[in-house]
Amino acid sequence: MSVDMNSQASDSNEEDFGVNSEEEDDEDDGGEEEDPGDIEAYYEGVASDVEQQGADSFDPEEYLFTCLTYKESQRVLIEEVNTVAAALKVLPAVAKLILVHLHWQVSQILDRYALLLLPPSSTTLVFDDMFMISVFQVPQSLQCGVCLQVVRRDSLLALPCQHSFCKACWEQHCTVLVKDGIGVGISCMAQDCSLQMPEDFVLPLLPGEELKDKYRRYLFRDYVESHFQLQLCPGADCPIVIKVQEPRARRVQCSRCSEVFCFKCRQMYHAPTDCATIRKWLTKCADDSETANYISAHTKDCPKCNICIEKNGGCNHMVNFCWMCLGDWKTHGSEYYECSRYKENPDIVNQSQQAQAREALKKYLFYFERWENHNKSLQLEAQTYQRIQEKIQERVMNNLGTWIDWQYLHNAAKLLAKCRYTLQYTYPYAYYMESGPRKKLFEYQQAQLEAEIENLSWKVERADTYERGVVGGEGELSASDRGDLENQMHIAEQRRRTLLKDFHDT
């Protein structure tokens, strides 16, 4: 990439990052109305409750991040721009291009500059494998390289690459690209020339303040997206920027709109599956959605009487059989969920292509069904969570205890969602995992987690039915029932943390 170091005008620093005032941090904090079917804060307030019961205090998903307003992120960028501009003795507009190209690795830029000992008189910087120097000279020709018109010298503009064009052609070039949403990527008009134009060269060429404001917004977007420590919140119309010390595939949550996402890829959080794998999985699900439609239906035939049944709760324990495999529940045991592990055909490589294709589809549908089932369970358990919330509120209003007295039910439902969310994303991970001892260990831990989540789900649903008075009495759990529920929370969270510690992308 080439960068012009003979930038035309001085930078105005903060003004050049500017956007309209309504996008600044004085905005109303009210985001979109929360979907009542989601448990958005299930990562909050549960860990300490579980740790008090003796669970491992280290959570592999712990990750330090800061939510910055537009002005705060602006200050972070300006400080780094000024540092590089002063060290390299270039204008801030040029420093920004250098920083974008090297992902705002300030220390790396300064180290490379110090090693190469570039003289202060350098006027052009080219970033390929090393720093290179080129001296700008005024073009001798007065003919525009685009419209081929001979123009006055003061109407002819050129970057240090010596490709000169008239001001009208430059204006049209910049205007079209900015209208197309281009910010930092505006480069010289000459064919095969990659020299990028600094913002103080582009801004005077743009007609009207509205287009200039758009250009500044696109620049800010490009600066943040190229920064190795920053990410724009993917929430709709959200101006928040997330800042971290070390960029990793970890869970972050916007403080303004509550959007939860993976810092590295800005997609839905997906531990223990890595970013590349979840992209492949979601693409495959989208491509094969029609094939999988029949398997993702929410009804099945009872294995005993063949009557069509529908699942109305998150737990997979259907009285005496398993919803997933329709097998006898008693055979599942408490240590290993056999139906969560796909049984490969060891002789499939020696069979016909048609047989291999059927086996591949069978394998995909196995994992897809379980992926979809846990997603459905999350939605159904969110309804249970809402009922528990409403019942707790009702009891507190009727002076039947305080919020603290009933908080264990609230925490149990949140922890259940947290654990099931992790379990859902173990299936794409397992689908793409190579066979071997590591996969066997993963499947064992996955099965243990699944067993404890189903136990927790059953206990939470049982607590919900008690609280609604469905099961005799006034609807109160005994002290032993409460202790059993809290102990199950502790076990499920331990299973979740153990799996993530061993298999999360670290």
TrEMBL record:
Q: Where is this region: Disordered?
A: 1-42
Name its GO BP terms in alphabetical order: protein ubiquitination
**Keyword field contains Metal-binding:** yes
**Ranges where the RING-type domain occurs:** 140-343
Question: Where does the UniProt entry say this protein principally localizes?
Answer: nucleus
Signal peptide (residue range): none
Q: Which UniProt keywords apply?
A: Metal-binding, Nucleus, Repeat, Transferase, Ubl conjugation pathway, Zinc, Zinc-finger
Question: What Pfam family does this protein match (any one)?
Answer: Ariadne
Chain intervals with Acidic residues compositional bias: 12-38
Identify the InterPro entries for this entry. Ariadne (IPR045840), BRcat_RBR_TRIAD1 (IPR047555), E3_UB_ligase_RBR (IPR031127), IBR_dom (IPR002867), Rcat_RBR_TRIAD1 (IPR047556), TRIAD_supradom (IPR044066), Znf_RING/FYVE/PHD (IPR013083)
Q: Where is the composition biased (Polar residues)?
A: 1-11
Q: Where in the cell is it found?
A: Nucleus
| Keyword check for Ribosomal protein | no
Identify the enzyme class.
transferase
Domain of life of the source? Eukaryota
* Reactions the enzyme catalyzes: [E2 ubiquitin-conjugating enzyme]-S-ubiquitinyl-L-cysteine + [acceptor protein]-L-lysine = [E2 ubiquitin-conjugating enzyme]-L-cysteine + [acceptor protein]-N(6)-ubiquitinyl-L-lysine
One Gene Ontology cellular component term attached to this UniProt record is:
nucleus
Which GO terms label this protein's molecular function in UniProt?
A: ubiquitin protein ligase activity; zinc ion binding
Which EC number(s) does the record attach to this protein? 2.3.2.31
PANTHER family documented for this protein: RBR FAMILY RING FINGER AND IBR DOMAIN-CONTAINING
Family statement: Belongs to the RBR family. Ariadne subfamily.
Question: What name goes with this protein?
Answer: RBR-type E3 ubiquitin transferase
The organism's lineage is:
Eukaryota, Metazoa, Chordata, Craniata, Vertebrata
Report which gene this protein is encoded by.
arih2
